[in-house]
Structures are given as C-alpha cells and as structure tokens.
TrEMBL record:
Family to which the UniProt record says this protein belongs: Belongs to the short-chain dehydrogenases/reductases (SDR) family.
Matching PROSITE patterns: ADH_SHORT
Ketoreductase domain residues: 5-201
Protein's UniProt name: SDR family oxidoreductase
InterPro entries found in the cross-reference section: KR_dom (IPR057326), NAD(P)-bd_dom_sf (IPR036291), Peroxisomal_Beta-Oxidation (IPR051687), Sc_DH/Rdtase_CS (IPR020904), SDR_fam (IPR002347)
Length: 301
C-alpha cells in the first residue's frame, strides 16, 4: 500500500514508532527513521536505536535512513524532512510519533517539566509537519498522522503537561486538514493503547494503577501500525481530520467537540438566572470527570 512512497517516522527507534517504521517498509515505503535516542523523560542521546531499525529494514530488503535530529527544535525538524529529500528525492508522509513523559501531579509540576513535554509533543509535531507542508503543497499530495492520547481526549492523573500537548495536537491536526484540503493533503490522529517504554514510566502506587498497567502490558505496539499505514496510503484519500483509537484488536472513532445543548434568555443573563435557569438546564449534558481508564475499563480484546 505504500509502494514508491517516502515517509518520515519520528520517535521510531523503539516501541510504537519502530513497529510503524517496519510496517511502512514492509508495505513498500522508503523510511526516514528519526529518533534522538533519549530516555523516556527526554534526557541524553544515542544514535543506536534509529540505526538498529534502519538495519532491520535493510536486512528485510527495504530502504531506510537514520535521523537523530530533535523534533523540538525548528531547524532540526527541517533537517529531518530534508533527509527524506536528500536520500529519496521526495516526501509523502509524516508520522509524528516522538514523545517523552514527565508525569507529575499538577500542583507539583515545574515549569521545566511543562515546557519539555510541550516542546517535544506539540511544538515538535508542528515543526516537522510544517517542514513538510510546502513539499506536500507543491506536489499536490501528502498525509500526516499525529499521535494524540486519551490522556488529552478524556483525562488522567498526573499528566497535565502531556494531556495539554496531546489535546493541542488534535487541534493542530484538524486545522492542518482544513488548510491543506485544497492541496489533497490529509491529517489524522491516533490515540494508541500499547505497552511501550513510555507507558512503563507510569506510577503504579495504588492497586488500580497496577491493574491498569497490567492491562496495558497485554496490548502490543505492533497493533497500532496497520491503521497508521492505511491512513498514510492512497487508500485513505477520503479520510481526514479524524481521531482514531487502537486498543489491541479494537479500532475506535472518537467524536469531536460540538455544541450539545443551549439555553436562551431574551432579556440576557444575571449570575442568579444562570444559577436558577441555565445550569439546571445544561447539567444533564455535563461530561463526567472521568479518566481514560474509567472509559476504557474492559480487558483488551
């Protein structure tokens, strides 16, 4: 499905990104395997993981090149896309998968922990996507796939920075889809459920947290790749601006924020009439204060 396509996959040295890169190559794509080789919290660097994935692809008869640039820096992100052009002459897809975690309860989170996660997830997704945009525009085709999370779509404890970035990515993707539609360029999001290096950093201090992590361990990273490959292929030409979730063998489509109900008062509102009229009328439509684990509470299939 990806024959003669060139795809950049960020964060492709391990976990979900690695499986996406391998699946892309297996379907005929030439792959730029980008990974800075940091720890799960974004510290250090190591060229080994990206090169190891490139070696796997080449050993299987595919074509790939390694990139160890950081998505969190504008110039470096442009060099990631330039690597595709330099080695393969074009770019057809961007998979924004790179990420780090610095979990902390909101009332303890430092500005540094906030900024580091925003820089990699949200700014990084914009930088790499933007670096490819003019190439997509000029050739009249292209596909973006961004990784969001149910931490942003629904909520989780101790992940204010991560959730804000991941929900921001939804807005980024939706508006890329709108702006680039006329150029036959698509943009979609996936919220993946899978046991990965980053998920392994989730605190497991309570019985509920331990149960959740054990459930996650049964969800393989390779399960995410088929939907990613499809969404980046020409077969998905009518799919853009959408949010999907993959959970083991399950694929879900998420709804998106739209008005649910409204109230009107011809003479306008006062604080008291808001309390007496508006809130009682609207309250039935409130979204419960749930976490991802409360909504996806059954064992993976």
């Amino acid at each position: 499905m990806m024959e003669n396509k060139v795809v950049v996959v960020t964060g492709a040295g391990n976990g979900i990104g690695r499986d996406i890169a391998l699946a892309m190559a297996a379907e005929g794509a030439k792959v730029v395997v980008n990974d800075l080789g940091t720890s799960g919290s974004g510290e250090g660097s190591d060229a080994g993981p990206a090169q190891a994935v490139v070696n796997e692809i080449r050993a299987a008869g595919g074509e790939a090149v390694a990139s160890t640039e950081s998505v969190s820096e504008w110039n470096a992100a442009n060099r990631i896309v330039q690597a595709a052009l330099d080695h393969f002459g074009r770019i057809d897809g961007v998979v924004n998968n790179a990420g780090i975690l610095r979990d902390r309860m909101f009332f303890r989170m430092s500005p540094g922990e906030w900024k580091a996660v925003i820089d990699v997830h949200l700014n990084g997704s914009f930088y790499v996507a933007r670096a490819a945009a003019n190439h997509f525009k000029e050739q009249g085709s292209g596909a973006y796939l961004h990784m969001t999370s149910t931490s942003g779509l629904i909520g989780n404890f101790g992940q204010t920075n991560y959730a804000a970035a991941k929900l921001g990515i939804v807005g980024l993707s939706r508006n890329i889809a709108l702006d680039m539609q006329r150029y036959n360029v698509r943009s979609n999001c996936i919220a993946p459920f899978a046991w990965s290096r980053l998920i392994g950093t989730i605190p497991t201090e309570t019985p509920e947290e331990k149960q959740r992590v054990e459930r996650m361990k049964r969800m393989e990273t390779a399960k995410i790749a088929p939907l990613v490959v499809y969404l980046c292929s020409d077969a998905a030409k009518g799919v853009s601006g959408q949010i999907f979730t993959v959970r083991a063998n399950e694929i879900f489509l998420f709804n998106q924020i739209r008005p649910m109900r409204g109230v009107h008062r011809s003479e306008g509102w006062t604080p008291q009439t808001v309390a007496d009229h508006a809130m009682p009328a609207l309250k039935a439509g409130f979204t419960p204060l749930e976490r991802s684990a409360d909504v996806f509470c059954w064992d993976p299939i």
